[in-house]
Amino acid sequence: MTQMLTQTLNTKTMNTRIGGQIAPAHSLTDQFGAITGHVGLLATEFSYRKDEEIYGEDEPAEYVYQVVTGAVRSYKLLSDGRRQIGAFHLPGDAFGLESVPAHRLAAEAIIDTTVRLVKRASLEKAAGTDVQVARKLWAITAGELRHAEDHMLLLGRKTAMERVATFLLEMDRRLAVAGMMALPMCRRDIGDYLGLTLETVSRALSQLHAQGILGFSGARHIVLRNRQRLHNLDS
Amino acid sequence: MTQMLTQTLNTKTMNTRIGGQIAPAHSLTDQFGAITGHVGLLATEFSYRKDEEIYGEDEPAEYVYQVVTGAVRSYKLLSDGRRQIGAFHLPGDAFGLESVPAHRLAAEAIIDTTVRLVKRASLEKAAGTDVQVARKLWAITAGELRHAEDHMLLLGRKTAMERVATFLLEMDRRLAVAGMMALPMCRRDIGDYLGLTLETVSRALSQLHAQGILGFSGARHIVLRNRQRLHNLDS
DNA sequence: CGGTGGATTGATGAGCATCAAACGATGTGG
DNA sequence: CCACATCGTTTGATGCTCATCAATCCACCG
Questions:
Q1: For residue range A58-84, what is the model confidence (pLDDT) as tens digits?
Q2: What pairing do the DSSP bridges indicate for beta strands A94-95 and A63-69?
Q3: How far apart are CA A54 and CA A49, in angstroms?
Q4: What CA–CA distance (Å, rounded) separates B159 from B169?
Q5: How much is the mean pLDDT over chain A?
Q6: CA-based nearest distance B138→chain A, Å
Q7: Res. A40 pLDDT band, cuts 50 70 90
Q8: What is the mean pLDDT of residues B69-85?
Q9: Which residue ranges does the record assign to the HTH crp-type domain (chains A, B) (predicted)?
Q10: Is B56 helix (H, G, I), strand (E, B) or coil?
Q11: List of domains in chain B
Q12: Chain B interface, mutation test: which of A5, A138, A231, most B Cβ atoms within 10 Å?
């Protein structure tokens, strides 16, 4: 099981730079900075290599994280190894924030990744005196809930093609630079995010390519050529 | 579409009493009381008939609710009428709490239902001065997120039988009285919650019945006779 | 330039959806 | 009070979507 999901640890960083810098501070995506900046908390940086675990499911939630560069997947496993990825975390995104003492999903670096982190306890403490911080923590969790609710609709009711179209539009929104997106994750990750197999994901992408809706520059660099038609497929 | 989902409005209350009283105040389930009691907010009561809409998707979130008696479904629709129910709300449960100004799922009474409600604005105001209230609102949203994360795993990766087993154990935990559960919702609701058709739900229940894992007293009154075997099926 | 992990493509089949009909329970009107 | 209408549930027959198994293919890296 672990074997099935664990690919080549100890590999060097890919030479093509995938995953950009952290989002500018104006944006909704840098929710974390709004806290640490405001309260003047000490934020440390730490790096993880590709496929390295950041924390495990049900592990004590000692830290809260923010992606600086790289990408992270949060997931749950069934006992036989089936995996559901609940979210991808990209530069600027906070993750690992819990209102209870344990993490509910595991987290791994998808590629070499640098994070900023603060102790959960210090955030809790700040929230206990500063109501603005408390409000911000709630907003982060509420944002994750919104994503999860949208994703339940996708997993429960959308067809394979609709799921892939939704995924492409989400990634386009979140990480496209100059109309091109550089996906940090492999087809298996995408499948485990969308509740599909990697083969089904690949077939859907090939079909969209054949219809001219997207273009490839290598399997992980995708250009959307017709967002309107993707929106239609999205249902 | 609306037609497909709307069944017999204006029907009388069922004579079998389904859905119990509100949970005692000690419990984790009465999260709402902990707030309204603490802050001394004015909570009104209101009733909805079976299948009546409480609020629609993307409607302004003016109130926050708590089920007193009855049951509520929260759901999203695709444009062609496919529906995903994100959660069932039972007596004691809060619902409709948002950190943004609009509801992201619609809510309907499953059976005749009474709710307690408070204005969202007054909760926000209380949270602005009382950090305990702010903490409680966060905890409610975090609890909903946890449920959604578990449900994503179910929708993305579990088989039909595993989904039904998980559902039965959830409902057993939440509404069983004296070993018996009186389900307020129909097979279609269960299917739309589990990402299945009503026929598949019915077949799974029949199979569990044939194996002696559960007993029926009418389609909606179920007794679990072997929770251990259900847990095994749950994967 | 060869090696390796990831991606694509193909062949086949299983699980669940769909379509259809019968059954059952609940409430109504004669 | 019983026959009937109605809505919900069960059960059956069939087919489609997507999973599985398998074989290249391709990009990236040493």
A1: 999 999 999 999 999 999 999 999 999
A2: antiparallel
A3: 10
A4: 15
A5: 89
A6: 5
A7: confident
A8: 98
A9: 158-228
A10: coil
A11: 2-157 (2.60.120.10), 160-233 (1.10.10.10)
A12: A138
- Locate tokens 């979210």: which residue? A87
pLDDT-based confidence at residue B34 (cuts at 50, 70, 90) = low
Q: What percent of chain A has pLDDT over 90?
A: 82
C1' (C9) to CA (A47) span, angstroms: 38
Instruction: Assign A14 to helix, strand or coil.
Output: coil
Task: Report the candidate in B61, B126, B96, B122 with the shortest Cα–Cα distance to residue A131.
Answer: B126
Query: Tens of pLDDT along B83-108?
Result: 999 999 999 999 999 999 999 999 99
What is the DSSP annotation of A115-175? EEEEEHHHHHHHHHH-HHHHHHHHHHHHHHHHHHHHHHHHHHH--HHHHHHHHHHHHHHHH
Strand C atom within 7 Å of A187 CB? yes
Residue A177 three-state SS: strand
Facing residue for B86 by CB, picked from A83, A100, A152: A152
**Cβ distance of A148 and B150 shorter than 8 Å:** no
What are the residues facing A180 on neighbouring strands? A177, A223
**Rounded CA separation A95/A117 (Å):** 10
pLDDT, residue B8, reads 28
Distance from the B204 Cα atom to the nearest Cα atom in chain A, whole angstroms: 18
